[in-house]
Every structure is written in C-alpha cells, then in structure tokens.
Amino acid sequence: MKGSVIDYWTRTFPEERRLENEADLPRRLEVLTPEAAAFWITVLNRAEPIAQAVSWKRPCDYGPWAAAIEKIESIDKNWPPMGQVQNPFPTSNLMAFAGDASLPGWPADHTHLVDFALRFLEADVMLFRSGYTKRHLLRRLRQANLDATQTARAEALARRAVTKGTGLEEFREFCRLTARIVTDDLRQWLEVTADGVYLTLDSLDGFDIAEYLGRMDDATMRKISRHGFGLRLKYAFAADLSQPITKVKDLPADNCIKRNAWRMLRHIRRTGN
Prior knowledge:
The chain is mainly α and 273 residues long. It has twelve helices and three strands, in the order αααααααααβααββα. Among the domains are: 2-107 and 125-137, no CATH class; 196-253, no CATH class. Strands 1-2-3 form a three-stranded antiparallel beta sheet. A hairpin with a 7-residue loop joins strand 2 and strand 3. Helix 2 (34-52) packs across helix 3 (63-75), helix 5 packs parallel to helix 7 and helix 7 (148-164) runs antiparallel to helix 8 (168-181). The N and C termini lie far apart (44 Å).
C-alpha cells in the first residue's frame, strides 16, 4: 500500500498534472496577452503603495494587498477580466492571471510575461498562493529570454533577496536564476557581502557538511556537532575556518545577510558560472 501511494505521488500525479497543463495551454495562451499583462502591471503599480502604507499584522498577512486591490476595483467602472472568467473577488482575478503566467508554455514572444513576472516579484505581492506563484514565476524567468533591462531588474531582485530575505524555497529559486544571469559586478558584490560569514551545520547541505567536518580538527568537530542536527545548535564557524568558533547567540546581526550571499555565491560556483 505504501509503495503504491509513493508511486502515485512521484510518478502518476506529476504525469497527470503535466497532461492537464498541456490540455489547458491553448486557453492560457489566449489569456496571456500583452494587453492583459499591461493591465495587471498597472494594477500592481497602483496597489503596491496602498498595500505598503498599511501596517501588517504579520509577515504573511494577506489583508493589505487584498484591501488595496479591492479599493482599485471599487473605483474603476470597468474592471476587465482580460479573457478570464470574472470572479467576484478582485484578488482572485489577479492571482488567476499570475497563476496562468507561472506555468510552463510561454509563447515565443514573451517579453510582456517577463515584465509581468518581474513586476509581480518587485511588488512582493502577498495573497493566497502568492508564495507558490512567485517560485514558479522565477522558474519561468530562468527559462525565458531576458533583455539587458530585464536582466538588470532580475539582478536587483536577487540582491533584495539577499539583503531583505525571503522564503526558503523562493530563495532557492533566486539562487538558480542568479546563476543564469550573474555578472562580474554581481559576483563581486556577493563576495564582498559574504566576507566573514559564519555558518552552522543546519545552514549546509550534505556535501558541505561532509567537506567542513572533514576539514575541522577533532575537538572543533565534536563541539560543533555535539548537540546534533535535530536540536538547537549553539556554535557557528567561519566559512573559511580561519577564525575560532563562536556561539550562535553572539553572531552579529548582519550574519544572516552574509549567509544569504554565501548561499547564492555557492550555488553560482556549483553551476560553473
């Protein structure tokens, strides 16, 4: 029974989703027009300052963005669905378009979808399923044709992800995108930002853990790993191992930014860029 469940989620379900997406592609291509993308970019431009002016109760609060878009809809006499089925909730119309744009199968000429994806990410929309949508929009950008201006905007988003932080899965997609668009200037900025970073075992993957533990002396290795991977780690070590270990509670406040830069730089180097 367990084997059949695993087989369904690892093989059958992904194949079913792929076939569904292929069957839905003609409808999405009719919806993903330059006019629709321009309309929703305008909505994002108008909604972002309204949402930012509201105090958020928590980082994942949907209220400010929902209120901002509903306010725009209430003062617009014509709220065009742009080929979509009109939904009584304005936020659902935006997320429906973003969801269509986040799936594979963009048209050959997709400059307008690149601009929409970048604007959606720049605005940092916070609505139901927006985190999932952002991750998939980043995947589409990684596969898209970007001009110089769009590449610069994507680079600015990567820098913001390092300095401001983001969700773990979203940050991983930023790392994959950055490896494709990396420039000498961005690489140098990451190297400077990551300089002096301290790491903990829970910030590494299996390959890094094996490498670092193999380079540590026995006393340091025992102290670093004494509390195990499932418990709160108390000690951190310099990425270059040149400095003595330090307690996590004594790390400087900007170490999280340094760690983000280190992670992004590590991914770029692993891809050979």
